[in-house]
Amino acid sequence: SSGINAEYGGFEHPSPLVKALCLRQLHRAVQDRRNLKMVGEAGVMKYAITLLADEELSVVKECNRILVTLAGYDEGILILFSDQGVKLMKEVMSYSDTIRYRVFDVIIDSILISDQALESANSASFTAKILEDLESPDILLQLTALENVSRLSDSPTAYTTLRNMGIFKGIGTWLASSSSGTNSDASYTVPSVIKLFAKLAQKHNIDLNAFCADCPRYVPAVCGLVNANDFSIRLACIDVITLLNSRVDGKQVLLAQPSHVIMPALQAIARDASRGTDDVKDRCLVALAQTFSLPEVYIPDFETHTEEWFRGCQGAALTRETLKLLSHPDPVRQCAAASLLRNFAMHRYGIEAIVGAPGWTERLLDRSYCVDREAQTQRFALVIAFRQSAFIQELVDRDTQNKITKFVNEGAHYRGGETAPSAVLEL
């Protein structure tokens, strides 16, 4: 330990270059597990904590590297969360909010590496401090706490801990107050909350039914905010509904919502799909396509509920507008429209709406506007779904059925030349 002790003066040197050099040497030492006992006994780790408050970011970065490296070893966690380590971290956190964030970064990075670090952080009340920050009147502390919760949810064990602490339930209540207009800071905090919920919706190790049962205010608040005046909040909520509909348990959560909660949200999305700005239309078409997509497993009353949604969204008019988009010059819009119509074609009410639209055959089968290869593929998938529907025989005359079959047999990328042989469908 004499070599490390010799560096003490370097850690306290006024030059940030010298301090950073000494910290890099310490980092090399802690990368070898055999050195940890010596490092702990030398008492040198206090510098890696106290220098988190340094004004020079290069010094702070080296401190973070050292402390997070320690978390990779059981012995290192004992050093980091020793009585002295915890005392120093709490002392440093008290200097300023900026330095408080730096310490939280170390703690969270450590937790993401080791469940033992999570237990130690809980014992030292560090995770409880995140809850305190969420309830702070300081908007910057709230936003940072939300980011910390989001990062911690990457660890399944930390997610469970936060859930058991009631943090998500509290955030859900907060979101509900924002959607009702009683939270004056909503424009700052709500996007972060929605982003957090979207992140959770993407994690397939999280049971959304159980999560929403514990935190019942999330989905109603998201649905209510689809009509928010703030454009970014509206888009974030539309994306959450898209994510929920991409999962079986997410669909179940939405199907469980009362009609007065879910219907206005879907009506707003359908309205924007037809009359919104260009950048909104595509998001809304994708959201609706996911909403009416068939679940991977059977869900009771799925058809009944989605037909109610379809009627409530003026589905026939929406279908007519979406058919027109198949000839839109933007291939992205063509793809989004084809995807939505394909999922409509999975349901009787959707097929009825398509065949009830004026000029539907020409719009469905006209290749002249479809020059982009991906758009051609998407339209072909739409026509295939339409051709394979159990309701075609009943709702479409024989001559039109033959035209559809001819389109399919010509292939996805047929342009008056050779037929793509892999795409042929037998009559």
Draw up the topology in text.
Layout (H helix, E strand, L loop, with lengths): L1 H4 L2 H4 L4 H15 L5 H7 L2 H6 L6 H14 L3 H7 L2 H11 L3 H17 L1 H9 L2 H9 L4 H14 L3 H9 L2 H13 L6 H17 L5 H7 L3 H8 L5 H15 L2 H8 L3 H17 L2 H14 L10 H11 L2 H11 L5 H14 L3 H8 L4 H6 L7 H16 L3 H4 L2 H13 L17
Helix pairs in contact: 3-6, 6-9, 8-9, 9-10, 9-12, 11-12, 12-15, 14-15, 14-17, 15-18, 17-20, 18-19, 18-21, 20-21, 21-24, 23-24, 24-27, 27-29
Tag the structure with descriptive keywords.
single chain, about 0% strand
Commentary on this structure:
- The chain has 427 residues and is mainly α.
- The protein is built from 29 helices and no strands.
- The chain has helices spanning 2-5, 8-11, 16-30, 36-42, 45-50, 57-70, 74-80, 83-93, 97-113, 115-123, 126-134, 139-152, 156-164, 167-179, 186-202, 208-214, 218-225, 231-245, 248-255, 259-275, 278-291, 302-312, 315-325, 331-344, 348-355, 360-365, 373-388, 392-395, 398-410.
- The N and C termini lie far apart (84 Å).
- Mean pLDDT is 87; it is low at 1-7 and 417-427.
